[in-house]
Amino acid sequence: MVSSEMEYAFAVNQYGRLINLYWGAPNRSESDYDILLSYNPVIKPGPRGVQRAEYPSRDSFDFGEPCLRAAFDDGAETLRLVYSSHVLSGGELRVTLRDEYYPLEVELVYTTWGDLPLIGRRAVIKNTGSTPVRLDSAKSATFWLPYGRRWRLTHYAGDWASEYQKQQQLLTQSSLRLETSQLTDAAAHHTPFFALDADGGSTEELGEVYFGMLHWSGDFQMTFETQHTQQLDCLGVTGGVSDYMSRPVLCGGESFVTPMFTCGFSSRGFGHMSEILYDWQFDYILPRGDKTDKGHGERPIICNTWYPYEFDIDEKKLLDYIPKVKRIGGELFVIDDGWMSGRTNDRAGLGDWVADPKRFPGGLGKIADAVHDAGLLFGIWVEPEMVNPDSDLYRAHPDWILSEPNRNPLTMRSQYILDMSREDIRDWAIDWLDELIESAKLDYLKWDMNRQANELGLYALERAVSVKYMRSIEYIWRHLNEKYPDLLLENCAGGGGRADFGMLGFADRMNRSDNADPIDVMTIHENYSTFFVPKLAGGAGNVSPSPNGINGRAVPLEFRIASGMTGSMSIGIDLLTADDATLERLKSAIAEFKLHRRALQNSYVYRIASVYDRSYQVLEYLERDKNEFTVFAFGHNLHQWDKQLPRFRMRGLDPDAVYESDKTRMSGAALMNIGIQLTLRGDYSCAVSHWHRI
Predict the structure, then answer these.
(1) What is the CATH topology of the domain spanning 298-384+423-447+468-598?
(2) Is-above-0.85 flag for pTM?
(3) How far apart are CA 124 and CA 522, in angstroms?
């Protein structure tokens, strides 16, 4: 499997085993494969039969991390998978392996996307016999990196309000595992993404980077196993659903399908890695969600009720709010949490998806009509997976929650988790969502999820609840996309808990964090932009209130506006109490943003100066056709020695083009070789510079 930038090769050896040969920059000759094959040890009797198996199983003398572990009815747990057949169709290759003795088949599915240096892999594991087979581990794939190198791992971990914090470490001869076991969200603590570079020597612009992401929002595992032995000198990366609370039992004829695990290769550093991921999203993933503007998919500017009011909302306040949204140039009015019956705090009403008759006597329809009459779009917040003990739903269906038998279930955030792995509960959710979308004439739906699972018990392990739960969530999202193709969908999970590649194909916006403090956002967004295009960067208030409700920091409005422009732009400021000067400044900022929105939301993001290295940050947003770019610069706690910043060299421009900004003209070559001068002074300093091709 070869593109202009990457080659991925595997073969069947003389024992019928499928072994990996190569992953990296393209080779030049078919004879190279024979050499690569000779480098790979083969399975043979004795402990020296170590191999780079394309899909490792618990084989007799393969002691590395397996993709597949199975337990048969006679007690056997080893597997010996051999090649059976393959089918190539379009951009997809299917290779079938079977066990030499037991009735178990594994179909390996390989997917490519045009000429992009990416390869997606998943496995379909089928019990072809009549007796049950338990899968103790069922991973998507193992990717093998080249010989003879020491690898630095980059991954992203964090917590609520501090998502996507960059972590880096050199891998030694050992096994390192990234894992989540919270059922409902993957990215809350470990984003299912990795990048590897040799000896930690790659930069934004230089060096080879191998990277990958799991298309899964539930419990996952990624294992990085380094081996330096007589037989092997390499690194294997194995990824898939977590073994924790997932040991599915396959009856005769049943199959288990793993999520896709996609990996890629950049020969020009981390910056080109981001370009590859952006091209993949723009050309193959996002068109599903680009529901406006003939495919360009500009995201509307949101005014959300959460940050200014939280639960303190009613019909009169919202009707008064709508003209203010219109005045500043907002486009989408969103009622966040607090609209349901009895929902005046987070301890009641969750699960009862009807408008509170006391606070909204005209129902949602009256608000929707007022919003649409103002020429705006209308949206609603929901949290379909959860229920409060103080709710009509729980009183009617206490058996619907995830819990262990013979224990009093524990709440978290005053709520229980509905057992969405059950088809009847999944279908109930679809029914009320359909009714809400249609009756409230929704243009937008914000799906939230605010707690992790506990107390699942053995029954959950045997039923593979963690997998079935997430498959049900995907089923509902797929239904919403198919039935309501014009409905805009935002994926939120306590902020960025599900901002991952599992949800990428379903959502038009992905909340990067509940934390809208622009100083914290400098770090969060820099890392978020490593793998997600800027139009996805959602949140209830990218332009946030001040002081910030999470950390109490007061930040000038200009800094907050510039920070908001780096994402999909939403306003979380109380427009009813804002003075005329603030409203007019928001109006002018939104008008400026709209002039450049198409370019900003369809841009590559280059990290010119990282907040990790200094007290300032410089980001370049380059439109894909290279006709326009914008430079965002943010500084805080700058010192005297920072008064003369270096010239910042741009990236990716057309060297022969001439670009202009505020009557300054420079060639693309000069912008990339000489750079531009920016001025930042003191605290909360920012600069925004728009350039266009002449």
Answers:
(1) TIM Barrel (3.20.20)
(2) yes
(3) 41
